[in-house]
Amino acid sequence: MTTSNPFDDPGLARRHRKARRFKRMTQLTIALTMGFLLFFLVDMGRTAFPALWQTYVEVEVTYNETSARFTSMAVDKEYRDLVSRAWLREIPQKVQADPSLIGTTPTQWVLADDEVDQYMKDHYNSLKPDAIAQVEALKKQGRIALQWNTHFFTHGDSKIPEYAGIRSAVIGSVLTLIVTMALAFPLGVMTAVYLEEFARDNWFTRFVEVNINNLASIPSILFGLLGLSVFINLFGLPRSSPLVGGMTLALMTLPIIIVSARAALRSVPASIRQAGYGLGLTRQDIVKDHVLPVAMPGVLTGSIIGLAQAMGETAPLIIVGMIAFIPDAPGSFTEAATVLPAQIFTWSGMPERAFVEKTAAGIMVILLVMMTLNAAAIYLRKKYEIKW
Which residues contact 190 (CB under 8 A, 6 or more apart)? Predict the structure, then answer.
């Protein structure tokens, strides 16, 4: 009597070949994904790096009553086309802040025009031959050079490329996200606790759960339309303000926090609840003192990920008007403001070549912030996670 070896089954060998092919396809997909991500980061970083440097030119600046009124008269005629118009427009404010400048002619390093800056960076530019000759002469004299671009971090938006910065957009983003988390986090956690720990399983609860899951997957632009119709048109809140933008993003982030918080609460072992009941504790005490603290790492992780997603949103904020030209940083939650994603979107449509590198630099800034937030979520998860 002969017995068949189960390992000689041709069907088993075929399944093993399929498993190996699937494994190779998975590895290839991961390799391609990482390759595309690396290419994107390298290309974006290469484009963004020149934005961290800006051309300055050393010229004599004349401060008098005439130059305070007609700012182009502050520098010699041969250098006027090389100096930034935005820098010249600041002369009246400089004189007002320091009246002792009147009657002086100091030699200063001043901001250069964007076309000069592009020439110094070996980028495409529209400088005329006479201007190029002037730039080359100044280079030989050591009177023109690339310096650290402080304007990019200390100034707001501007139609003049060399003067545009991200300060107002960053402050607007911070104020907007403060409103978002101040509303979405407590409401989301309380909703999750109620649905998971206190709500009865009936048709109404199931209806609410289905709608929460659906809200987590609808296009974000619909939340912008909701914010426009409710917060602005119905309640009359100030358009383009961090208050309206934060409330709109809170609506979008709320389902994400609820879903992640419910999953964290569901992962807490039932034995903790049963032990509490055995000691005579009420359900409120068990949830407040035992279940919620154990689930908090997962709740914080989901909330931070929701915050990172909200920071990268543009469509809903465009609908509520946060894409306006805002050169000055907002001083409160009700003043007009813009956010970094909207600022990047605006710069990407500008015709000047200098805005290309500023757009890439803005993208790198927002990527850095989002990666930091995700790293913080992973750190909190690993640090405070309790394994059963």
Answer: none
Cα separation, 354 vs 117, in Å, equals 8
Cα gap 63→81, rounded to integer Å: 19
Q: What distance lies between CA 44 and its chain's CA centroid?
A: 15
Residue 56, exposed/middle/buried by CB under 10 A (0-12, 13-18, 19+)?
buried
Q: Which two tokens stand for residue 177?
A: 């996200």
pLDDT in tens, 349-364: 898 889 999 999 999 9
Q: pLDDT tens, 113-150?
A: 999 999 999 998 888 899 999 999 999 999 999 999 99
Contact 377, 71 (CB under 8 A): no
Domains in the chain, CATH or no CATH each: 50-90+105-129+144-149 (no CATH), 167-384 (1.10.3720.10)
Q: In sequence order, what are the beta bridge partners of 112? A: 83
Coil vs helix vs strand at 55: strand
Q: If you search the block for the tokens 């401060």, which residue do you land on? A: 63
* Cα 235 from Cα 212, distance rounded (Å): 24
Q: In what order do the strands lie in the sheet with 107-111?
A: 107-111, 53-60, 144-148
Res. 381: pLDDT tops 80: no
The residues pairing with 108 across neighbouring beta strands, listed in sequence order, are 59
Give the largest Cα separation in the chain, rounded: 116
Task: List pLDDT tens digits, range 261-312.
Answer: 999 999 888 888 888 888 888 888 988 888 888 888 888 888 888 888 888 8
CA-nearest of 123, 141, 159 to 49 is 123
Structure tokens at 352: 């000047």
Share of the chain above pLDDT 90, in %: 43
